[in-house]
Amino acid sequence: MAAVAGVAVEPGHWIGGERVSAAGAFEDVSPIDERPIAEIARGGPGAVDAAVDAARRAFPAWSRTSREERARLLHAIADGVDKRVEELAQVETADNGALIRSHRRGVMPRVAHNFRFFADWLLRLGHEDFDTRGHINHVSWDPAGVCALITPWNAPLMLATWKIAPALAAGNTVVLKPAEWTPLTASLLAGITAEAGLPDGVFNVVQGYGAEVGGPLTAHPDVRRISFTGSVPTAKAIAAAAAPNLTPLSLELGGKSPLLVFADADLDLAVDLAVEQYDNAGQVCLAATRLLVESSVAGEFTERFLAKVAALRQGDPRDEATDIGPQIHRRHLERVGGFVRRAMDAGAQALLGGGPNEELGGLYYRPTLLTGAPEGAEILTEEVFGPVLTLQTFDTEDQAVAMANGTRFGLAATLATGDPERARRVTSRLVAGTVWVNCFFVRDLRAPFGGARESGMGREGGDWSFDFYCDVKNTVTAPWAR
Ligand code: NAD
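Above: inputs. Below: predicted complex with nicotinamide-adenine-dinucleotide.
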């Protein structure tokens, strides 16, 4: 048992309703001070087999429970999360370095909401029957079986529960593999599901590295769905592993999203939207890291942006007053630094930041704004996943749209404009799973979420989640003889 931020966290896997230890362990390090905080069971093919087997055996009974019973249990899990918001927030902040204030007030309450939302959605899930000359087409959402869920480190419990809640609601059983840099809240969630009364084997957690756990899990022939959030290269490895079994995939991947600022925009709002892109120290898939600003307002925009960022406080994420915390890991900090160095070598200049925060040391990277990168430069096309934004200017709407669509990604796009007609024209031409107009990060679980191009495959949210996690069946019944 490890004590993290005063909270007891079990280091074992969670398989078949029991803690399972492993021969090996890996060290979990806090990004706040790079100190080890826990030794976590290191899974491999054996643990994966055991977890998939437990999930497979639990499936028949769980898949036959009534919708009402599943909804009741999901609400009980949400109650357990609500009771532990502070503990979960503390542990998540220690584990991934994101701000305690957002974990307390935003993220953990939304984790509970994820369970409540899909519980309630399940109860109203339905479809109109179609009558074909007296033959009735009845559509049902049959649970698919064992779901493998694989998640990243940037919003561990939030992203995991976006998948766990609909997968369980649909009547599936689950094997979750959390990211190796942030395994702790998944372990706490396992305890919460047990307390809520979820039957053994319905929810399982195997911890460990991608190649050692994720590889065998995604290649497993008894897995019926794979939902993955993470990077494009990993998604390609998963798609290859899933191919021999034709296991259906939902992929939520990286991005290089634009924020388009037109001269007719409310410039203060546009600046606020741009500053928001440093949230979570830039480690947000949806972040609009490319600021595309109409030339005539670029000077004014930049001035106001720099003034606003100067007021942000970087520091310990456990401090409620902190705005920007550390990067997740030394390897990640170095990767971010590498992008910025190569951009500057290619001709970019830093209007802000451009390196680690030497005063703070550790894993703190200064909020950075780069300009002057040549067209096609790596910094304008590849995902950095750190507090690094680029500034480019445009003169026409066509140019803005071409720049916005000019990467292999298509996760999100944000638009600041005061002209509704322009908003309609431009949004219809943007390639993105989500487009925000004069707002950012407004997310409704009823709406579809996912990415275009290399930002993903499939959509989750509302009915789209049930479409993915179910075998949708159409039953056609001939008129009964009188
Ligand atoms: P990653 O791809 O390195 O790892 C994600 C998960 O995949 C981890 O649990 C990891 O252990 C596992 N993994 C690694 N190799 C594997 C393999 N061969 N088989 C199976 N699983 C394997 O990503 P990351 O660095 O943890 O996360 C950052 C990335 O995630 C960024 O690209 C970011 O944009 C993306 N992301 C996307 C969304 C979204 O909703 N679209 C949300 C958050 C993060």
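Residues 2-253 form a domain with the Aldehyde Dehydrogenase; Chain A, domain 1 fold (CATH 3.40.605.10).
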